[in-house]
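seq as requested:
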Amino acid sequence: MNPLKKYCVPLLICLAPFISACERDSYTTWDCSSTSQTKISMVIRKAQMEFQGNTFKFCGSLGNQSYFDQQCSTQTEQSSVVFIPSSGSLVLGGQDYQCKAL
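struct tokens:
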């Protein structure tokens, strides 16, 4: 038997669960504020935004704007949340927020 197969294959089988367990849940936490509220936490995790106790699904992007809504429609630009990650600008229900990544 080839020594490479004899030792490497069993070793890879034993290490496989540990290698696959290294995958992390990627997310970004933001600190947002408006003229009437400060220190509002926002989390973008995978394809969802969590903000003020609500969860919004990612509906798409047009240019530098990302759109989120609780129910995405075919008209992405009509989503209830518009977020521009590069500037931290967030608009939700007509209210403007300024966010900073933590």
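The longest helix spans residues 3-20.
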